[in-house]
Design goal:
- Two copies of one chain form a homodimer.
- With 306 residues, chain A is of the alpha/beta class.
- Among the domains of chain A are: 124 residues, Metallo-beta-lactamase, Chain A; 42 residues, no CATH class.
- Chain A is 26% helix and 25% strand.
- In chain A, the strands form three sheets. Chain A has a seven-stranded mixed sheet. A seven-stranded mixed sheet of chain A has the order 7-8-9-12-13-14-15, with helices on one face. Chain A has a two-stranded antiparallel sheet with strand order 10-11.
- In chain A, strand 3, helix 1 and strand 4 form a beta-alpha-beta unit.
- In chain A, helix 10 runs parallel beside helix 11.
- The first copy, chain A, is globular.
- The N and C termini of chain A lie close together (9 Å).
- Chains A and B meet through helix 1, helix 3 and helix 4 of A and helix 1, helix 3 and helix 4 of B.
Chain lengths: 306, 306
């Protein structure tokens, strides 16, 4: 069973409070960590959750509003002080690199590890990262500054060998890889074909997670999110504050739920809450009127794929 | 009695921990607030101490190492979001302004209040701020990048009227201001002079506070610190790590105490502790061998002038 979890390190919008830190999420996919956004204090939040900084190899920054990146410099520098030598991959808008470089230059500092910067395109979706198991792509959002979300998609997993069937049909070991790939089997010296489904079990499910913050209501992202397992969508405002949402290029809880419904998501988690709402249940209740399986992405919440 | 207190918001050196935040101190002089340095998370620290952000009108940044300024942008932006309209004075090295401007430009943001930037000279001491009661000057430190400390000095206070003497000598009200200034009194129609000291009491003491972080051992600052009431001096290292201190332009506890002794300080507080020392008493004990009245400037500590 794959591990695929999302730890909410921050759920505030622009002005953080003691209860809600600025945006940051730690994605754990089979013990590989991916950090999405890095608001002020993220290094502290990682320490609170006993996450070893050096296990982070990929940091994704959605856009250059302070509540999404002002913790990055501190984290990069602390990693260096703590002795990191492994390369670190940083994904974000072009100017993020300039900001990092300028801060380092003015502090007469260098990082003791290679920082590999990957500039995100803000006009069309692209694959940022790919390995045997996973692709990570951008989602083009509609915000006051260029902004991308991130789509984590596990690749189809191998079929699982059925040990009892293997024994019964006396299948040789060399055939296992092809069976996992879904191929049928035949003995070299016989004409008989043994169907793959007699020898294997269905693979584990492949999960997907989408992070959509910050954005105004934008139905153009729906096709990319089709049948997503967990959709994080910002819900800065209640729908009664729709005009404020529109003006600031943010979404309401109702709008987030509408995207989840259209995308046929399995679970919607909402976050990036304006601190005008003391009781977040008003946002949750509003979203649930449109999309029942909604939860609050509050600080310290963990969501696991099931 | 004047209020003059120093609240330690952060005592860590470059790599903060859960117990120690990066550098920041809040100086309260008769309910006027002054913030010195603004490491990552300072806005959170101010909230923890229930300090209203809008009461801050002066922020002083010693130098451009991340642990001394990375919380500034977030604080400036939160002040704006919370509706500040009053001007804010920011004092620091020239490039601080560039960093602030660049971050704001890339986030397509403006502050909703005037930010008045005062560039600090890094080659000679200067008065940064002066009012009726107080001057704030820079102290030229010796660090890896240009760095200034800050010297808070109350001006001499007015002599206090002695009500009994005023009654006895039947001194008219119009004379009070001159008496507070220390002048003698004579009735317009008499030749007799009544000495000031018969009519007034000694003024309250005028206090001074010096913030010296970060710096290597530098005796050139001693004359400026002469007879200081409270000296904060960084003590990043133990003296057994003197070479490391020298290489990184920091001080040892022994060196901090030597400066305090030479300056004839009343109290030394040490901070900016390297996180290699789990028990800070080793630093305290080392300083005390040279200068007995030393205390640790740990997070949340408050020092009051007495």
């Amino acid at each position: 069973m794959t591990k695929f979890s999302i730890l909410i390190l921050g759920s505030a919008s622009a002005a953080p409070t003691l209860a809600r830190n600025p945006s940051a999420q730690l994605i754990n996919i089979n013990e590989q960590y991916y950090l999405i956004d890095c608001g002020e204090g993220t290094q502290n939040r990682l320490r609170q959750h006993k996450i070893k900084f050096q296990r982070l190899n990929h940091i994704f920054i959605s856009h250059l509003h302070g509540d999404h990146y002002l913790g990055l410099l501190g984290l990069l520098q602390t990693m260096s002080i703590l002795g990191r030598t492994l390369p670190l991959n940083l994904y974000g808008p072009k100017q993020l690199k300039e900001l990092v470089d300028m801060n380092l230059a003015y502090s007469h500092s260098t990082l003791k590890y290679p920082l590999i910067f990957h500039e995100t395109q803000t006009n069309q979706s692209e694959v940022l990262f790919e390995n045997e198991h996973l692709t990570i792509s951008t989602i083009i959002l509609d915000h006051r500054v260029p902004c991308t979300g991130f789509l984590f998609k596990e690749k189809p997993k191998p079929r699982k060998i059925n040990p009892k069937a293997i024994k019964r049909y006396e299948i040789p070991k060399y055939a296992m890889d092809n069976l996992k790939r879904g191929l049928d089997f035949s003995f070299p010296d016989k004409n008989e074909v043994i169907k793959n489904e007699l020898l294997t079990l269905n693979p584990d499910e492949s999960y997907s997670y989408a992070y959509c913050s910050d954005t105004k209501f934008n139905e153009r992202i729906v096709p990319q999110l089709k049948d997503i397992d967990i959709l994080y969508h910002e819900a800065t405002f209640l729908h009664r504050d729709e005009k404020r949402a529109e003006a600031t290029y943010h979404s309401t809880a109702k709008q987030a739920a509408t995207i989840a419904k259209q995308a046929n998501a399995k679970l919607l988690i909402i976050g990036h809450f304006s601190n005008r709402y003391k009781d977040l249940n008003v946002l949750l209740d509003e979203a649930k009127t449109i999309f029942a399986n909604t939860q609050l992405a509050q600080d310290d919440a963990v969501f696991e794929m099931v």
